[in-house]
Automatic annotation (TrEMBL):
Subunit-level organization: Part of the 50S ribosomal subunit.
Superkingdom as given in the UniProt entry: Bacteria
Species per Swiss-Prot/TrEMBL record: Thermoflexus hugenholtzii JAD2
Family (UniProt): Belongs to the universal ribosomal protein uL16 family.
Name of the coding gene: rplP
Gene3D superfamilies per the UniProt record, alphabetical: Ribosomal protein L10e/L16 (3.90.1170.10)
The protein's name in its UniProt record: Large ribosomal subunit protein uL16
Amino acid sequence: MLMPKRVKYRKQMRGRMKGKETRGVELAFGEYGLQALEPCWLTARQIEAARRTIVRFLRQRGKYWIRVFPDKPVTRKPAETRMGKGKGNVDHWVAVVRPGRILFEIGGVSADVAHEALRQASYKLPIRTQIITAEEQV
């Protein structure tokens, strides 16, 4: 599972996800990419599930890149605990995704293989996505 090795502060505030993404919106490594169309918190488990789907479908052909990293801690208080007594412990890690962000990239395979791998990976994610190609960006 993806998570940071160390962080400066153990707990973070929730923050906001308004607006479109400005960084990480163009293909940088591969010819095909999966782009987010909605804002969300992608958990490390969801990223790992999509990654495994891509790896299984590619079967040693081509190469893939993960363009998001879960570096935001999400805290949770234990079940049946009364209010107060401070903030809960870190439960899991999320990546903050805003519309336009490239989540995964694939290169070195044919168009239909890349499309199918990214389509299957998109089923593992909680948001609407679209598959983009390098030709569309030019």
